[in-house]
Model the fold of this input.
Amino acid sequence: MTRPRVAIIGCGFGGLEAVKALSHADVEITLLDRTNHHLFQPLLYQVATAGLSAPAVSAPIRHTLRRQMKRGNLTILQAEVTGIDAARRELRLDDDQRIGYDHLIVAAGATHSYFGHDDWAAHAPGLKTLADAFAIRARVIGAFERAERCTEPAACEPWLTFVVIGAGPTGVEMAGTMTEIAHHTLPQEFRRIDSTRARVVLIEGSDRVLGAFVPQLSQRAREQLDKLGVDVRTGCKVTGIDADGVDYETRANGTGNETPDGEAVSTHRLHSRTVIWAAGVAGSPLGKALAQTTGATLDRAGRVLVEPDLSVAGHPEISVIGDLASAKSYEHGQGQGEPKAVPGVSPGAKQMGRAAAANLLRRIEGEATQPFRYVDYGNLATIGRKAAVVDLTVPVVGAIRFSGYFAWLFWLFAHIWFLIGFRNRLMVMLDWGWAYLTYERAARVVAEPPSVRTPDSLQGGPRVSTQSRNVPFCPK
Done:
């Protein structure tokens, strides 16, 4: 084989764009992903909250890249990469198979970060994969079912208290949607409980929600959350999570435990049996593997610090893109001007995928590579029914910011437009249209809800696990 061998790890937004850009070139491409589908993550929370089914936000990789496959230079492997040998230019797979490469693009994405408290994962699952979405859906629907079985009001309350930790786009969208489920979808479906009594508490460590947005839109988002009935608590630091609830502390003047700087601390306990984690992300474990074999530097979140052209220092044949890359963008190109950090959003991953592919082809031709320049089109976030915030950047015009009903419509059509495939767009339009008219959520079926019984209580019956499986317009 005389054509250069290009290996691409991950078929998220960045990996997918890199494959499309390279499929026209005279190179041999091997795409590796541990799943068989591409996932449209900005709408993953809709699967977790029973608004959409899994096929509506995902598509088989082989079907998505069928046109590229016809060109005869693309091989797709469903496999997990467990190691990288930069010296030999080899990838080690989960079955210990070795795959050689001449050029490597790593788009392995991100995982959940619990800030050193990995034990919280069992009680507060995050949302990055379809498996995560199924587990969260089972917990949310199962909480109402468990509340129906309670005979005492005091025992019922923790089941009807839902806590979302982290008020970024995912946390805000989850909190708003869960409130709508309790207030509009489930009323009159239970006999013993009143679902409208359910509480959704959104906990955020900073002083405002949607910190990536300008303060004006952040305030509008909070007002819309309040209107929906979400209990928003900012300035709260989570200190503990267990099966029965969340511990957090707030700092304010007054009584409480004195800190060295004289600031008072108040501790609080929130009883809840359903906690969702949306507070932090960390780079894929492949980032550490890459650092070990190349000497690359990782940031605090485990992301790889890359060169201006997205390559790894000392290894120009390796590029890192997407959520795994700690990249900076130069506003004026050519490495000039003050660099700005590239946000971890889908447009950034797409642009990095195309840029990495273009630089790879330049290296093959012996040309100089170009520094990456991120074009920021803005941010979108939905809060709930008829509620959203939009922050757009339009050339010449500048920033366009609005919120409310028209922002919600813009958010709807933008996400439909960027979905993969006509079938997915049609499915989402139909599901959203029906939900808008009826408040129904058709994807509420749970195949196997998590058991609330312990093995000791089964009295000789089959042993049942008591834990959920913990297997993340764009921008999001």
In short: The two ends are 41 Å apart (CA to CA). The longest strand covers residues 264-271. Confidence is low (pLDDT under 50) at residues 253-257, 452-476.
